[in-house]
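Predict structure. Chain length: 318.
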Amino acid sequence: MRFIIASMLSLLITSSLFGAKITAVKSNIAEEGFQTQIVVEALRALGHEVTVTNGVDYAVAYKTIAQDEKGLSFMSSNWAPLQNNMIKSAGVENLLISGNYIKNCAQGYLVDKKTADKYNIKYINDLKDPKIAKLFDISGNGKADLAGCAPGWGCEKVIEHQLDAFGLRNTVTHNQGQYAAIIANSIARYKTGKAILYYTWTPYWVSGKLVPGKDVVFLQVTKSAHPILKSTKLSNGADYGFAINAQRIVANKNTKNHKDIAKLFSIMELSVNDVSGENMLMSKGENKEKDIARHAKMWIEQNKATFNKWIETAKKAK
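Prediction complete.
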């Protein structure tokens, strides 16, 4: 008994004096590295030691964190409600899910405004008409080519569900793969005056290059059809087929024992516009790990009062 008590006291003293060792699990979307790095810098400011992993699939990340019984680990880019089923599969009882780190993350289908205006295209359902669908044909098979969502992200399941729900299988091809390459092809086509159809989300750099309302328009759906949610309709009555998401910080349950870390995760908030702005820098070539780290430190310097308040509040919780 004395040995157990002595060991526990030693662990508490070590954690208090030298900080905890934490693993930051990063998604395989490079543009989510910025938000991860800001959390990493905050944890280091609290005196903790943080190691960042290479990018992994979301489902793998959640299982890795949930199964981390002895250590401390987290991921800062859990999409809710889009990835709720992944969280459940990983074992939600073994996770600490914090508040909304990044709010108002939109998703949806877009087409170039010129084509939408000319042919009065307002809904993704309009592509059930072969004549409309053919306007977006790239491969030559008469079907619309949708620059879609990569497997494993969660958005691909929504798109696949809606292709069936809206009867679009015969007129739309969901092109999947490396998203950056697929969307780059769409942008190149747009620059040559050709019609484009694509899926994207915010925060991301695409909407800075193809500006909604100016260059492109969002398509709505005629009714909600979602594999998880009963309704995707917004409060203003619009329905883009996808819910407005929030990105949350998900950590393993051991985090509850470190009140400063748990508090930090619960109070951090990052503007969706700030993330999109950083992502735009990445799209212009500032996309190496050292660039992302520099961007994070620049953001912290420019938002010093906010950052310092996070640290002060977290320290008080400890």
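Summary: Strands lie at 21-24, 49-52, 72-80, 95-105, 107-112, 144-147, 172-175, 197-201, 216-219, 245-252.
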